[in-house]
Specification:
single chain; alpha+beta; 6 helices; globular
């Protein structure tokens, strides 16, 4: 599996302990198989690292957007890392996940409505390496300096997402 990680430096050996514990799939080293996505959110003078992961012998959990994914991420956002997998692969939760969970835990948003909001926007895939076994099976191939993506491209994507999210939220509110 070819994977990419964008950061501020060349990373030949990932540090699994640097990732946030409450990230989508818990602490680990996050990458994406989507080169376009990896380039999309780069800051100025970013470094794109390219890797290859040998999946042989690894325990891998794969998620699709859905209730199981939602529950797993919800647990991790509350600091509960619910897996002993070497690698977890699945969609990146959109930025509204923080707001959705806050509203959900306050009782103002039902779980099924939070799920609708989380389904908004494009689906990008992330891969989280969780164990040293997985990190050892990740081979660094190369890196390259990349520049910041044209702001108009990001702004257009954000505008589409905001419109879709607003439409879903209006449907939820008008149903009440």
């Amino acid at each position: 599996m070819k994977l990419y990680h964008t950061g501020t430096a060349e990373i030949k050996r990932p540090d699994l302990s640097r990732g946030r514990r409450n990230a989508d799939f818990g602490q680990g080293f996050y990458l994406s198989p989507d080169l376009d996505f990896s380039r999309r959110w780069a800051s100025a003078d970013a470094v794109l690292n390219e890797y290859e992961l040998d999946e042989g012998g690894l325990t891998i959990i794969r998620f699709e957007r859905g209730e199981e994914w939602f529950r797993f991420i919800f647990g991790n956002r509350r600091g509960i890392d619910g897996s002993d997998a070497d690698v977890i692969i699945g969609p990146i939760a959109n930025d509204t996940i923080f707001d959705s969970f806050g509203i959900l835990t306050s009782g103002l948003l039902r779980e099924e409505d939070a799920m609708k909001l989380l389904m908004a926007g494009p689906e990008y895939i992330q891969v989280a390496l969780k164990t040293t076994i997985a990190a050892e099976k990740l081979q660094w191939i190369r890196s390259e300096k990349i520049g910041k993506l044209d702001a108009a491209v990001r702004k257009a994507e954000q505008k589409r997402y905001d419109a879709e999210f607003s439409a879903i939220l209006n449907d939820i509110l008008n149903r009440e």
